[in-house]
Amino acid sequence: MSQLWDTSGIAPQKSIVMAGETIPAIFWNAVAARGPNVWMRQKDFGIWRSWTWNETAQAVREIGHGLMALGFEARHTSSILSNTNIEWVLCDLAVLSAGGVSNGIYPTDAAEQVHYLCEDSGTRVLFVENDEQLDKALAVRDTLPLLQKIVVFDMDGLRDFHDPMVISLKQLQDLGREHAQQHPDMLMHRTAACKPEDLAILVYTSGTTGKPKGGMHSHHGLVYTVRGYNTLIARDERDECMCFLPLCHIAERMGGEFFSMYTGAKLNFVENPETVPENVREIAPTVFTAVPRVWEKFYSGVMIALKEAGGLQQAVYGWSIGVGQQVADLVLAQKPVPASLKLRFHVARLLALNNVRKMIGIHRARFLVTGAAPISPDLVRWYLALGLPMLEVWGMTETCGAATGVPADRIKPGSIGPAADYNEMRLDPVTSEILVRGPNVFMGYLNLPEKTAETIDADGWLHTGDVGVVDEEGFFRITDRMKDIIITAGGKNITPSELENELKFSPYVTDAVVIGDKRPYLTVIIMIDQENVEKYAQDNDVPFSNYASLTHSTEVQELIQAEVDRVNKKFARVEQIKKFWLLDTQLSAEDEELTPTMKLKRKLVEKKYTPQIEAMYR
Amino acid sequence: MSAASPTLNTAPEAADDNVMLKLLNVESAYGPIKAIRGVSLQVRQGEIATVLGSNGAGKTTILKTISGIIDPRKGSIEFKGQSITAQDPAFIVQRGLMHVPEGREVFPLLSIRDNLLMGAYTRNDRDGVARDMEAVYNYFPILRERAAQDAGLLSGGQQQMLAISRALMASPDLILLDEPSLGLSPKLTKEIFEIVVRINRERGTTILLVEQNANMALNASDYGYVLENGRIVMEDTCARLREKEDIKEFYLGMKEEGVRADRRWKKKKTWR
Fold first, then answer.
1. Distance (Å) from the C-alpha of residue A540 to the closest C-alpha of chain B?
2. What's the N-to-C CA distance of chain A in angstroms?
3. Which of A254, A512, B169, B242 is most buried, by CB atoms within 10 Å?
4. Is the CB of B36 inside 8 Å of chain A's CB atoms?
5. Touching check for B211 and chain A: CB below 8 Å?
6. Considering chain A, what percentage of its residues have pLDDT values greater than 90?
């Protein structure tokens, strides 16, 4: 078991663990090497069912041949519109094995977005999860001339539905088996013909600004980066991972699917997004990558349980976490942990901390990885105090996921770590924008050569749009997004994300958009954390009935005002937020105001809530 | 958006003389299980208010907490400007609040007349009781016809009529009505609802109605609350509630036509 003061057990390894220069080549090599071992697990009627590498290979072969039977050629594009599940991975690998280009679509996207993504990517075969997703495809297929077939994973409720364009995944596999008999080597030929420089996958940016752009990644870029991940983060065949973030997002595609395929770690799929906590407890992953939102949920779950616990339990937890914090502080300060403290920490773990870890399901975790959004340094410290190193990584679609990572033996909360060994990083001398160069940088945006040229300069540096600082140890810290810089009417340059991130660290704030461009002062639109604010209201006898009345109540207004005041203290007068407005509609990922990753879209929010914004300047 | 969906602010400072019953942050539990997790609502004098919700949402618990059968863990209940939080049920009845429980609960071995007189147990104005008895018989003539028979011999619908009548016999200001449609035919349900509305209009009795039959309840009531998992997620006038997407889909069973003729999957609830 790794200890905070000795992280040698979680040092990543530097050698190549699986040969192959393209994603399908690695996959088929891995199948040959690990055949009967388990790779994936997914619940089927409440029971975890395992998929060995051989079973996976069989299904991928059938789907791949099925695609070819439908006339799917090398370099054709296929899209997958589904929640994260095993079928997603099978179809992805089948498309890549057949030499095709694979694209993912968020299951929360509306029909119009599905249309845009299919049209832009030139999708020929569209995989959909179930009847709900099928309805979206059917609504827009008439205006997608390239689309040939829609393949449905789950046919429940579709028994009486017949359409020449729609087949089930099972039917596709039947077609594939027939095709494989007639052309037994065709899929392997396609895989072999696949070149490292070929386009492999499209990852559409979720687009906080404007239409989504299709980031193109070659096989070489993916393979290079996945090998790089292995030098950044430890993972091997014994590890159990959870797979639950959207696979159309670069984080789970790379860090989940491809990284596990390369290292042989097991992928456990959650039943649905709501059952993540239960499934995590059942699996108890040994390495766990998630987004800050998930870590916050776990933390507030523990806090709520603690409030309802007895006095003795609270006292024991208080003492134990205190000991954990002492250990964490020493480790963060790179000081040795005295033996007496180690002993007390051991007791603290036995008394309380191990149970807290068990409650979350991270009692077997060797370490935790967080990324895709900024995380509160205090939250990182809390997990450290539980005895778990939490490593922050930073990256984006365009860098093929992680480009920096905090090393386990030098955790600095608030910092995203130094550049990963596999890419170069520097700050633009004028704007302080973070620039990244390396084979992991993407090929460009599909159909958008001008946008690509704006993003990757002549020397090959990717302009990330994030503004940052770097310290003497080479650790980077993000301070803002380039495009978002606000210039107030007073001529002051403000970096809104600094304020927004500070606000988001409050348990009562989910997201915030700071307004103030060409305005006399700053204001902010805030989306509250419903669960925590409801809890606050109930604990403090604040009457409310629905979401709107909750946001309108005086006490909640005061609560948020206190959070705004707390943030304001950290900033100079001209950078302080004078007024705020709470979004009074409960938003979900289906709403246009939010990206599929639940971030507010700045431009859209500014436009949609103009009257409310204007009211703050009256 | 705020213009499109005006919502009533139930903040305590929005003092309304008209408010007859006010619940603030009420929490009730059965042992370790919290049935209602913080409910704030108000019922104005002379209106029919309704609480909609599925099985186990906590509707009956709200009524039982109001009438004092269960003491709340937290929060306060005000009736006609006075606190009745965790008071004795008998006291609450005397203050003018009657509860018609779920499943009627008439006294099966007493005659219908005696059942009605049980409702008037706390009164000592004989004239008034006689008048109310007459009024009740006018609303439900069948009760007059069978006045001498045992209540246990009545049909389900007739027992419901009797239970409502028994409550009326106390001449209450507010009646809590728990699922009057339970186990009744659609025709009988309709009749009962019509009379409930008549009672409200003619006698000015305020009614808090709890129902699973959303269609009936929304048509009969003035103001509605939607309860889910022990919390109110939506409130509005019933006219406006009927127009809400989620109410249509999840409570009235109306679905938009999809691309295919039928649809198995459910929309997600947004409550707006």
1. 9
2. 59
3. A512
4. no
5. no
6. 73
Structure tokens at B217: 């309840």
Residues 523-542 on A with a CB inside 8 Å of B are 534, 537-538, 541-542
Report yes or no: B150 at the A interface, CB cutoff 8 Å. no
Q: Which residues of A touch B1 (CB under 8 A)?
A: 584-585
> Amino acid identity, residue B115?
N
Residue of chain A whose Cα is closest to the Cα of B8: A549
- CB of A161 less than 8 A from some CB of B: yes
* Closest to B33 in 3D by CA, of B61, B52, B54: B61
d(CA A181, CA A65): 10
User: Are the CB atoms for A545 and B41 separated by under 8 Å?
Assistant: yes
Task: Tell me whether residues A534 and B2 touch, CB distance under 8 A.
Answer: no
A435 to chain B, any CB pair closer than 8 A? The answer is no
Select from A164, A202, A108, A126 the least CA-distant residue to A595.
Answer: A108
Where does residue B266 rank: exposed (0-12), middle (13-18), buried (19+ CB within 10 A)?
A: exposed
Angstrom distance (rounded) from CA A326 to CA A344: 10
| pLDDT band, very low/low/confident/very high, at B9 (cuts 50, 70, 90) | very low
Q: How far apart are CA A231 and CA A353, in angstroms?
A: 30
**How much is the pLDDT for B4?**
38
Contact A543 B232 (CB under 8 A): no
Q: What is the pTM of this model?
A: 0.85
Name the phi and psi angles at A353, rounded to 5: -65, -35
A34 burial (CB, 10 Å; 0-12 / 13-18 / 19+) is: middle
Q: Is A1's pLDDT higher than 60?
A: no
CA distances from residue A81 to A62, A92, A363, A476 in whole angstroms, order as listed: 20, 11, 34, 36
* Neighbouring C-beta atoms of residue A50, cutoff 10 Å: 13
Highest average pLDDT, of A300-309, B3-12, B130-139, comes from B130-139
3-state DSSP assignment of residue B123: coil
B271 touches chain A (CB under 8 A): yes
What strands lie across the sheet with A390-396, from one edge to the other?
Answer: A287-290, A367-370, A390-396, A401-405
**Structural tokens at position A78:** 């296929």
What does the alpha-carbon distance between residue A501 and residue A423 come to, in Å, rounded to a whole number? 27
Which residue, chain included where needed, has tokens 């304020």? A499
